[in-house]
Amino acid sequence: MAEFWLGFDWGTGWIGVACGQTQTHTATELNPLRARNGIPSWAEIDELVIQWKPAGFVVGLPYNMDGSESEMTVRANKFRKRLHGRYGLPANGIDERLSTKEALQHINGKAMSLSKARKAKIDSIAAQIILQSWLNEQLHNL
């Protein structure tokens, strides 16, 4: 039986969102959420939880290239913990270094300008990449 998971690319202005499932091990981007200084509209996340009924969450943690934590890593991890506390579901963190760069390459591969990249939901493409990486890890751990 397939389980749905929600993936997030946390940011201070936008939070990218993706949904993935364990039967096909695929993730799909959803509309990004607007955030104010990293704080999302919890009502919008409530709606996502009601709609998708996820088994849990995956949040990208933006470590520095040397593997150390930054202020952004700490804040993304705080968001991850709040998801767990609010919904009582597993909230996994995954190293997301270079996910935004990969998302930009994905969009550039489609010959879009950077201004159109925002319209193409760059943050949610990054969330899709984050969630897909986690799903791939789960598949290899079977």
Which architecture per CATH?
Answer: 2-Layer Sandwich
Q: How much strand content do the residues show?
A: 25-35%
The CATH H-level homologous superfamily: YqgF/RNase H-like domain
CATH topology descriptor: Nucleotidyltransferase, domain 5
- What is the helical fraction, as a range of percent? 40-55%
Structure class: alpha/beta
- What's the Cα radius of gyration? 14 Å
- How many extended strands? 6
CATH class: Alpha Beta
Write the layout of secondary structure elements.
Blueprint: E1 4-9, E2 14-21, E3 26-36, E4 39-40, H1 42-52, E5 56-61, H2 71-87, E6 91-95, H3 99-108, H4 114-119, H5 122-140
Parallel strand pairs: 1-5, 5-6
Antiparallel strand pairs: 1-2, 2-3, 3-4
Description:
The protein has 142 residues and is α/β, with parallel strands linked by helices. It has a single domain, classed as YqgF/RNase H-like domain (Nucleotidyltransferase, domain 5), CATH 3.30.420. It contains 5 helices and 6 strands; from the N terminus they run ββββαβαβααα. It has helices spanning 42-52, 71-87, 99-108, 114-119, 122-140; strands at 4-9, 14-21, 26-36, 39-40, 56-61, 91-95. Strands 4-3-2-1-5-6 form a 6-stranded mixed β-sheet, sandwiched between helices. Strand 2 (14-21) and strand 3 (26-36) form a beta hairpin. Helix 3 (99-108) packs across helix 5 (122-140). The chain is globular and about 40 Å long. The two termini are 15 Å apart. 35% of the residues are buried.
